Amino acid sequence: MKILVALILCFSSFGYAALQTIPANGQLSYPSSPPAQTFAAVSALFGPPATPTDICSLSGSTGTKIIKVYKVRLSSTQSTAGINNWFIVKRSAVDTAGTSVSITPILHDSFEIAATGVPKYWTANPGGLGAVVGTVRSALIPAPVPASNANAFYEFDFGPNTGGKAIVLRNSAETVALNFGGAALPTGLSTICEFMWTEENP
């Protein structure tokens, strides 16, 4: 009986060892941790208010998640084709007052839990802008007429392909916003804002 048990243990150990892949450096490799939960939020087509400041914003987690913002995308048209200066601004406090509309976050994987980040767009300027950390990006972006076949979107990319780090929001006050700088509103300007971000545990 003891011999039988010994043989079983021997073959079991041999089978287990044979299933392991040992690279040339002699160290076992293990699966990487699963990617962070990913979300998208897309506004309705809307007309910003006169002399717009922040027209779209994403604020940090209402829970305990760390938010990493990878993309902010703008689509725009106006009555007479032109070029507008847009800014990506990071704030250490949320905007207040004004009139905002919540944007529903969409899970890239419906199996995962709901988002804790807070995306919204503004149809009346915030009465109080959150404290500015700084301007992260600025771009001159064409806005064609609505009937044009021209490319009407621009993407601010903060992903790994840029060689840098995503914009990180570590609490519910921190915010990233698409901003028009308070410039005069071009006639007929209509916009769509999009955010793409991930959420992970600290």
Task: Tell me what you see in this structure.
With 202 residues, the chain is mainly beta. The protein has one domain: Jelly Rolls, CATH 2.60.120. It is 9% helix and 41% strand. It contains 1 helix and 12 strands. It has one helix at residues 2-19, and strands spanning 37-42, 54-59, 66-77, 82-91, 99-102, 106-107, 118-124, 132-143, 153-157, 167-169, 175-179, 190-200. The strands form 2 sheets. Strands 1, 3, 6, 9, 10 and 12 form a 6-stranded antiparallel beta sheet that branches. The protein has a 6-stranded antiparallel beta sheet with strand order 5-7-2-11-4-8, with no helix packed on it. The radius of gyration is 24 Å and the shape is globular. The relative contact order is 0.35.
